[in-house]
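The passage that follows is intended for readers who have already worked through the single-chain material. We present the inputs for a multi-component assembly, then the predicted structure in tokenized form, and finally a short commentary. You are encouraged to pause after the input and sketch how you expect the pieces to fit together before reading on.
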Amino acid sequence: MSKARYIYGNGQPYLKPGELAGKLIVVEGTDGVGRSTQITEIKQWLEMNGHAVVTTGLSRSALLTKTIDQAKAGHTLNINTYCLLYVADFADRLEHEIIPSLRAGFVVIADRYIYTLIARAVVRGADPEWIRHVLGFALLPDAVFYLKISLENLIPRVINSERLYEHYWLEDSPEGLDYWEAGMDLRLGEDFYDSFLEYQRRKMLAFENMSKEYSFEVIPASRGFNQVNRLLKQGFLRILQK
Amino acid sequence: MIRQFEQPHPYPGKLIIVEGIDGSGKSTQLQLLHRWLEGMDRPVFFTEWNSSRLVNEAIKRGKKKNLLTPMTFSVLHATDFADRLAHLIIPPLKAGMIVCADRYIYTAFSRDVVRGVDREWVRDMYGFAVRPDISMYFKVPIEVSLERILSGRPQLKFHEAGMDLNLSDDPVESFKLFQSRILNEYDLIANEYGLTVMDATLPITKQQENFRKVVAESLDSYDPRPMTRPRKRKVANV
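Having made your guess, compare it with the prediction:
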């Protein structure tokens, strides 16, 4: 049992989370780094060990999924609007998914958290201090595991024949290199490859800057699946045994 | 500097906003001012709170299914405002127009705080807003506003009566409790941000006369030449 703590400030006065019996564990890292695959495996492993697990991601809330898709299709979003849409979505998930699950004693694994929202916002020119304060109501996680990878190692995972076909031919393929993930709205290069490089470079820098500020536990993700998995499990065990 | 609305804006246009509870008569007053400005051949643009298409659907869906919490309600309105500010408020201000806004960020400051959202957080969230050149707050006692609303239509709306706050099962009673809390917040805000307080129980023509006087003074320094160069974009500092 622990009392709710927040990123900044004291949370929202009307929202009284009370005692939180569960644990909130965040896995952060760029697209293609293998976050989702790791989380799927860790969830199974935790369940085998008797923990009830809920996973939560970004832009999946019932309230806003449709609005976000429509807004993105228009491509005319101003930076503050863009940020706030994701803040609304996150707030919805925090209240309807994360807090109730923590109260009930679940292990909540967040497949990305406010840190990705902050990174996306600042690389698009939002005021870094502003977006941090707007998201300040978020619960402080018990741990943040940052899967860190070099650009060189990331490229073959994202740009390969399977993904290229998928993204060229299928309009709404679920993962990987879509218009926004390549930062194409920023027009950072002459094609999606150049844009992707520059966008990832900026995002990695943003994560680097948050690493100390928010006490990330860095996991070198250029290694193979098993090594990364072992490090993650060690981290999870440490938190769950607290 | 998170709260940009605490310093004057750099645009050649003028931003005139009105605030007040439902039934304060602010919209009527702004419409009359709008006519007057048009009559003087001023380039005027009129905009309302909560009128963009972007999040309307989410807000409607949320209200219908009761999915909205005070926080999501608050962020969605800020999202909507960010969209309108970027499309409907800043460009006309850059073009040297007079923008008349029916309700502005102070509506969110009062309403969201009454619903239980943190006072400082909501001000930070609207930090990107432009400071108005003229802010008129139409102050009216609850009884007067209630009488005005009910003489126009038979029933109070769910949200304007604050029925979501469970203050009372009776809509009229709930309205009184909810709107009196809003009034308290408005008083704080008027003080904090120097809104001009208008006695909204005065006759309509008298209020309009006072309103026009305030606007005329501000327009003395008005140079409607549009900006012809884009503002320098800030370099991203992650």
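Commentary: The radius of gyration of chain A is 18 Å. The first strand of chain A starts at residue 2 and ends at 3. How closely did your sketch match?
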